[in-house]
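Usage

Read records sequentially. Each one opens with the input sequence:
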Amino acid sequence: MRLSRILQQYPPRTFEKPKPSEKKAEIVYENLEEPKTEVVKVGTAEACIEEASVVICGGRGVAKKDDFKMLEELANILGWQVGVTRPLAEDRKWFHE
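and closes with the structure output:
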């Protein structure tokens, strides 16, 4: 199915100018509750990146999954954590978590 764009132009004074009215708006203030959220652990990971002081992140620049091991080795030596971008995790399906 092919979609096409349609541009419609209307000459000046095509529509009537709105008349002023005496209508007033009402401002209603509501006290909204804080959203109720729950943190749920999914699967088992070696460590939590939320608690890491430094995260090394690999993205599309990593050509092969084997090249990602260099980042993991560096992170292990320095005591950091490794993260991945969404394209690696979802598009290439390299990592499950």
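Summary fields computed downstream for this record:
- The mean pLDDT is 79.
- The CA atoms of residues 31 and 37 lie 18 Å apart.
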